[in-house]
Amino acid sequence: MHTPLCGHASGAPEEYVQHAIAVGLKEIGFSDHAPLLAYQDPGIAMDIAQLPLYHQMIETMRAKYADQITVRVGVEADFLPGFEDGTRQMLAAYPYDYVIGSVHFIAKWGFDDPIQLTEWDQKDVNEVYREYFKLVRQSALTGLFDILGHIDLVKKFNFHPTEDMTDEIQANAEAFRTARVVIEINSSGLHKPAGEIYPALDHLKVYRAHGVPITFGSDAHKPVQVGRDFAKARDWALAAGYSEYVMFEKRRIVRTVKL
Ligand SMILES: [Zn+2]
Ligand SMILES: [Zn+2]
Q1: How much distance in Å is there from the Cα of 178 to the middle of ligand 1?
Q2: Chain center to CA of 97
Q3: Which of 125, 149, 192, 247 is the most interior residue, by most CB within 10 Å?
Q4: Among the CATH numbers 2.40.30.60, 3.20.20.140, 3.30.70.270, 3.30.470.20, which is that of 4-258?
Q5: Any bridge partners for residue 1, and if so which?
Q6: Is 8:44 a contact under the CB 8 Å cutoff?
Q7: pTM of this prediction?
Q8: pLDDT tens readout for residues 22-70
Q9: Where do the structural domains in the chain lie, given as residue ranges?
């Protein structure tokens, strides 16, 4: 779940919490876009100076709704090669229940940014996919992240490779297992041009075969999106062979829950 601090989400944190309660969720976490250390863009991510407010807002919600829902504090941090040390320092500055690691950039290209959509026309889609999957693999192995977010975000605008990517997915599954990271089943892809949950079902089956645990995210950028399509996300997990998902507190898996 995001907050308006990232510059492209709307609704007060309290509205997100209230919607979560209304749809019957028992535990949620905020995970707004962490400050981008390589780029400055108030429309994409929080600024370093906003982090105290971010934590204060969530703490207020956590305390106010403690008897109705568990509210966790997370963050979605970009994997930016070359900025690992800065990212580590940024993440160590505050207590988090979980850190989601995401790849939104290939070099300086924000491949999932609608404003940069035309750049796809100049690219070799197969190469873009291979570069993307390699970055996701590298992000897992940094040890910076607990959960990897939307791990086939590269499909967002419905550009698909003509080459078989099985080798990339196998390599990623092995890296995830080695790095002991958890992957996110993210329902927001259903509402993007790709029209499909992240990650694809055939990928998820490979991750399942490698014993990579899952969490669920709706990637809400508006209060009404909290928990959206979670029934479909659950079915997706079951179809891939999963029988449980995990919950985080203080950057550790504290519970495993039956699907
Ligand atoms: Zn966002
Ligand atoms: Zn993201």
Answers
A1: 28
A2: 14
A3: 149
A4: 3.20.20.140
A5: none
A6: yes
A7: 0.97
A8: 999 999 999 999 999 887 788 999 999 999 999 999 999 999 999 999 9
A9: 4-258
d(CA 22, CA 87): 35
| Cα-Cα-Cα-Cα dihedral sign, residues 206, 213, 198, 133 | negative
| Helices assigned H by DSSP within the chain | 13-22, 51-64, 84-92, 125-141, 166-179, 201-209, 230-239
Q: What ligand has the least distance to the C-alpha of 189? A: 2
Residues at Cβ < 5 Å from ligand 2 ion: 102
- Quick check: 76 and 102 in contact, CB under 8 A? yes
Determine the distance separating the centroid of ligand 1 and the alpha carbon of 209, expressed in angstroms.
Answer: 30
| Secondary structure class of 122 (helix, strand, coil) | helix
Residue 50: both structure tokens together:
């906003």
Tokens representing 78 are 């970009």
- Measured in Å, residue 242 CA sits from the centre of ligand 1 at 27
Dihedral of alpha carbons 240, 168, 191, 247, sign: positive
**Tell me: the pLDDT tens digits for 105-133?**
999 999 999 999 999 999 999 999 999 99
